[in-house]
Amino acid sequence: MKQAIQIGAGNIGRGFIGALLSQAGWHVTFADVVEPIIEALNRGHSYTVHILDSDPGEIAIDNVDGVISTSPEFAQRVAQCDLITTAVGPNVLPVIAKSIAAGIQARKAAGNTAPMNVVCCENGLRTTTRLKNEVVKHLNEEETAFLEANIGFADCAVDRICPKPNFENILDAAVERYCEWDVEAAAWKGEKPDIPGLTFADNLMAYLERKLFTLNSGHAICAYLGYLKGYQSIKESVADPAVGAIVHAAISESGEGLIKEFGFDPDVHHAYVEKIFARYQNPYLEDEVLRVGREPIRKLEAGDRLIKPLVTTASYGLPVDHLIFGAAAALRFDCPDDPQSAELQKKLRAEGPAAALTAYSGLTAENPLTGRILDVYRALAVV
Prior knowledge:
CATH superfamily of the largest domain: NAD(P)-binding Rossmann-like Domain
Strand order of the largest sheet: 5-2-1-6-7-8
Distance between the termini: 56 Å
Largest sheet: 6 strands, parallel
Number of helices: 17
Helix content: 40-55%
CATH architecture of the largest domain: 3-Layer(aba) Sandwich
Radius of gyration: 21 Å
Number of domains: 2
């Protein structure tokens, strides 16, 4: 039986990636630092994924266990497994790199040259490549050569809305029915497994940016505008005619940029945009604006969901009147419980919005987009 380690035993790890692997007949070990979750996995070895959609359902997941990701046992599991997946958030990847490196060292010491693959299932571009760069910092030259010969680091694009669960069983997860998992074919080591729900892609960047420019971008814009209007959920936010219209127009604008950038078929991509917008309106999902909007500094980075779609679309001379709202509203996200939001608001108070925007997004004062974002930022003060 194939062995997988899913690092991150949260709702995405249990409800999406780990569930697909288990359904495909893999034994899945969840690795995390949250002891109650790991203890529950090792007691019951099963949980339920609840499909919250117009076609609801429940999926029983079994053949699972858990391990503390900082323990010596984790390294021994890595030494023998076939696949490592992650769902921890991009900022945590440097933290887990040391533990993965220790596992690779144990694998080499055991003489295990069977192919192993690592796939980071995070919201972001090329996160697996970023993890690999962190892992090799902990390896010597000989260990790095072992990695290059035997371990694949395949980037991927993942797409499934997994709201915060609220079930009696702490292991149960909530997801929408739709899911997409596209893995870079060329980077995979060894035979490609048949895992329903996983597609091996030759042009991964197109899949990555399609998701970033559409689902992620619109989701964030909806969260930030909804937060300003006092809404608790994405469903409430997108139902507001003013918010919903901006979100739909924004992902339509970014869609035109994608069509230019990657040569997508316009009719096919326009249909994709409508499907994404419909997913925001799923009446069965209570996805919190605070969850979607958290870490605004990361989301304001040049390569992330608010700035890259805007800059790319504008570079083709296309309209970006509604994409502008994303960065502007993110600057207004004032949630004291979110460390990045608190840092952002502190910088805004100390240095002003122009300096904060440049510091986090890389957009200079001379860039025409900067002035337009700041104009909308000021206008949003009266929302």
